[in-house]
């Protein structure tokens, strides 16, 4: 299953979730009062309690969305849906705690917890779906460049999802891992230069594979269009020799050898 677009990981979508989810619950509860919420909270100071519960939801969403923003997660749509369900469960825990402690409900805490989860589980899919579709449509509009244009430029982001480096795909020679960094080697006016990006190899998989680079080793991506020849040393290790001066030969592991040779 395809991964959710990188745009989902940017800060602006997280901010939208922080604003839209609590506001939707607040408005929906005051207007429709579904699932016996009036009976659960009580008619007295109903609006006050809904406001406080909305603030609790706001804080819960902020915590979860900040985690989503900073954690190096690579989720497909199924896992992202599970994340949203977990987010709903997290909200429910604290809303139920408020109802149980402050309103002094006679019911057991876990009964209130299950009610809170059921209420939010059937309420939040509407804003979740609207936000997800809006983000996906916006991402599709951004990505709807001509094929030549999409192949032409690669965008690299650091661990905080900030855009750090933009380069034409054809200029890249290879990318190598270095602990918590990746080194991007490229040609600039015929000279070999490098850019150090604070991120992991796993995080750049999508942008590399979608722009013609190929994995040739667990620590290297290589541009097949710059491979001049493959050579084998005395120990049987295969190396890719590139068509640029002053560039090291790149090791090619057995796992990725066939995939690379098919592209040469």
Structure description:
With 264 residues, the protein is an alpha+beta fold. The chain folds into 2 domains: 6-143, no CATH class; 150-261, LytTr DNA-binding domain (OB fold (Dihydrolipoamide Acetyltransferase, E2P)), CATH 2.40.50. It is elongated, with a radius of gyration of 25 Å. It is built from 9 helices and 10 strands. The protein has a 5-stranded antiparallel beta sheet. The longest helix is centred in the first third of the chain and has 25 residues, at 46-70. Helices cover 49% and strands 20% of the residues.
Shape descriptor: elongated
Structural class: alpha+beta
Helix count, DSSP H or I runs of 4 or more residues: 9
Q: Write out the strand line-up for the largest beta sheet, numbering strands in chain order.
A: 5-4-3-7-6
% residues in beta strands: 15-25%
Determine the fraction of residues in helical runs and give it as a percent range: 40-55%
Major beta sheet, specifics? 5 strands, antiparallel
Overall number of strands: 10
> Which radius of gyration do the C-alpha atoms yield?
25 Å
Global mean pLDDT: 88
Give the SSE string. HHHHHHHEEEEEHEEEEEH
- Ends: how far apart? 28 Å
The low-pLDDT segments are 145-150
Number of domains: 2
